[in-house]
Amino acid sequence: VVLTIGNEILTGNTTNSNFELIGQRLTEIGCNVTSQRTVADIHESIILSLTDLLDQNPDMLIVTGGLGPTEDDVTRKALFQFVGTDAEFDEDYWKELQARFTQFGIDIPESNRNQAMVPKKGDVIPNRVGSARGYKFEIDGTILIALPGVPVEMETMMTKSVIPLIEEMGITPTTIKTIRTTGIPESALIEKLEPVLKIKHQCTLGFYPSIYGVDIRFSHQEPKPVLVLASRLTGILGDAIYGNEKERLEDVVVQLAKDKSKMIAT
Question: In this protein, which residues make up the domain named MoaB/Mog (predicted)?
C-alpha cells in the first residue's frame, strides 16, 4: 500500500506523479498494489492514515512526502510518534550537509537541521541526490518505508534502495503485456473480443481508453498465459493494433511514412 502526503496534491496544484511511478515500478517486479491514499500535511491525519493502512496487514507500506526542512513538512515527527521511537541528531550527517551547501557558496539554513534527525529505532535510507534521507521501520510484520516527495529523489531512492530490498524478499516478476489499438471504441472492442474473453485465460485484464484508442493490458505471474492471450487477441484485432507496450501512435505513423517514402503534411 502507498501513502502520499502533501497539501499541494489535494489542492490539485501538483500531479501525484510519485504514485504513478511507484505503482508502475512495483507492478513490474511482481508486487500487487492494493491501496493508495493521499493525505494533507497534518500530523493527526498522517497518524490516522498510517493506522488505517497498517490495519490492512500489507507486506510493505510506502510513504512519500513531508520530509523537507520547512514547517509544513510534518511527516518525520508523525512517523516517529507512530513507530514509537525517539529522535537523535546525526552530527556527522549535519557536517556533510554543511559541506554540500558550502560547495555552492551557500550558508546552510538552520531549518535543515531537521533533516539530520534520525530515529533511534529504525534504519536510514540514503539520498544520493538530495538532503532528505528516508527511513525504514518494521511494525507487526509490515515494512514501513518513508521517502521524500521530490520526484527525482524519490525515484532514485526507489531504484537504489527500495526495489533491491523488495527483490531480496523473493518476489516473482509479473509478465505484463500491453496491446495498443485504434479506430475501435471500447464498447465495440469488448464485444469483438467476447469469444476470447469467455475462455478461462487466467490473466488480470484491463481496458484503458484514450483519445488515440484503447490499450489492452493483461498480466500473469507466469509468461505462458500472457503469450496465449496475446496471440488470441492479435488474431482477432489484426490491423486495429498499431503497437505494443509504450509505442506511440504518432511514432508508428511517422515510421510507416518513412518505410513507404511518403510525406506527411501538417
Answer: 1-169
Q: Of the given ranges (31-35, 137-141, 231-235), which has the lowest mean pLDDT?
A: 31-35
Cβ contacts of 195 within 8 Å, gap of 6 or more: 236
DSSP string across 33-92:
---EEEE-S-HHHHHHHHHHHHTT--SEEEEES--SSSTT--HHHHHHHHHT--EEE-HH
Domain 175-259 in CATH 1.10.150.130:
no
Q: Sort strands 175-181 and 214-220 into parallel, antiparallel or unpaired.
A: antiparallel
Delimit the CATH 3.30.70.2860 region(s) of the chain.
Answer: 175-259
**Whole-model pTM?**
0.81
Q: Tell me the per-residue pLDDT of 174-208, one tens digit each, with 9 for 90 and over.
A: 889 999 999 999 999 999 999 999 989 999 999 99
Per CATH, the number for 2-168 is 3.40.980.10
* Domain(s) of CATH 3.40.980.10: residues in the chain: 2-168
Helix (H, G, I), strand (E, B), or coil: what is residue 175? strand
Cell of 192: 469483438
